[in-house]
Write a structure and sequence with these properties.
Number of domains: 2
Helix content: 25-40%
CATH architecture of the largest domain: Sandwich
Order of helices and strands: HHHHHHEEEEEEEHEEEHEE
Length: 322
């Protein structure tokens, strides 16, 4: 019987180690095979003719979509919109829905050898290009100098003249409610506002009414074109400081204009409410100020008339007493 020499170390085979070594060897062989396959494949050959065909197909698609968007913009502006009285949602919804027709339009108009090259990526890009083309041209056709669909509005709500005394102890402006806190039961208030428009604010027609629960009928503060309200314009220009402070631009720099009329082209109007009410001072409570501004004329298209209206609440509250 053969025996190990006392000088030779005893060697034993570990089954677990053998299995691990076998698996590692198999992985190395697979990786080596993959690398060989990749090296065999190399780069795909470049075919200039195929590339040129794809470029032509993309160019056809781009111009088709731009022209389509332009045609839809012109149809909506000069044919469809004049039949509407206001800016209805269908005016914007209909062109967006037409995005679904872009693939079919390609297949109908573009030759088959080009249209069959388009993929989902082409339809996605074409759809967005159509929307942006229609939207960009619509902005040009609906804004000055070609048209004016935006009605005149108030520049920045309402305001009152600042009084350098202790009568007004605080104020707040929130959600079109202007609350004035007094320490007396009466106060003299000059109400101000400013009209703003894209083109012709002076010739817009304005109606301003004042209502209070103590009044039998509404008081008309202004009724007619803005430029005709000379007394109200002069009153506004005579006010040195407004309660809500001076305006700041986007960089928060002082502009010298009140917040109620932060643009030099805004037309300010102001009234002394006590004089309008034919009283020495106005009463406490809530005053509803209704403003309607209307413009019409050749420059107002396609609706022929733009109207804006809104109600503000001037809330006068006594929070402290003498």
């Amino acid at each position: 019987m053969w025996k190990l020499s006392p000088h030779e170390p005893e060697s034993m085979v570990d089954v677990d180690s053998a299995l691990r070594a076998s698996a590692y060897s198999g992985k190395r062989n697979k990786r080596g095979d993959n690398n060989k396959e990749v090296s065999k494949k190399g780069l795909e050959p470049f075919d200039p003719q195929v590339h040129a065909t794809k470029e032509v197909a993309d160019a056809y698609s781009m111009w088709l979509v731009i022209i389509y968007g332009t045609i839809i913009s012109i149809i909506m502006r000069y044919i469809f919109m004049p039949t509407q009285e206001t800016m209805e949602g269908i005016i914007w919804l209909l062109p967006v829905m037409l995005t679904a027709t872009v693939p079919s339009l390609h297949k109908i108009i573009i030759p088959k050898k080009y249209s069959e090259l388009y993929t989902r990526g082409n339809w996605f890009r074409s759809g967005f290009l159509f929307l942006f083309s229609w939207l960009a041209l619509s902005f040009l056709l609906l804004n000055p100098p070609l048209a004016d669909i935006a009605p005149p509005t108030l520049a920045s709500g309402i305001d009152i003249e600042y009084q350098n005394d202790s009568t007004i102890i605080g104020y707040s402006w929130d959600n079109d409610i202007y609350e004035i806190n007094l320490n007396e039961a009466q106060v003299d208030i000059v109400l101000g506002m400013a009209v703003r428009d894209n083109v012709d604010a002076e010739n817009a027609n304005i109606l301003v009414t004042l209502n209070h629960n103590s009044l039998d009928d509404r008081i008309v503060l202004a009724n007619g074109s803005v430029i005709e309200q000379s007394d109200a314009i002069n009153r506004f220009n005579s006010v040195e400081t407004w309660n809500r402070g001076e305006a700041t631009n986007i960089q928060k720099e002082y502009t010298g204009f009140p917040k109620v009329a932060s643009n030099i082209k805004d037309i300010g109007l102001a009234w002394n409410l006590a004089e309008e009410l034919d009283k020495e001072n106005i009463n406490l409570g809530e005053y509803e100020i209704f403003i309607q501004i209307l413009e019409n004329g050749d420059h107002v298209e396609p609706f022929g008339e733009n109207i804006w209206s809104k109600s503000f609440i001037l809330k006068i509250v006594q929070t402290e007493s003498l």
